[in-house]
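Attaching the record inline, Q. Sequence:
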Amino acid sequence: MSCRRRLSDECIDHLETALQADESSEKDFHVRQVLQACGVEQLPAE
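Structure, as predicted:
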């Protein structure tokens, strides 16, 4: 599996928002959005 795939602008925005978020639940939301967009099949429950 290659990690060289370029992230979309939307994914980059989500990651930047996650870095700026104070609440862990908000960080989790934005990171999960990126993982889902990249086709990660299974996300951990926590």
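Helices lie at 9-20, 24-37. Residues 32 and 44 are 10 Å apart (CA to CA).

More tomorrow.
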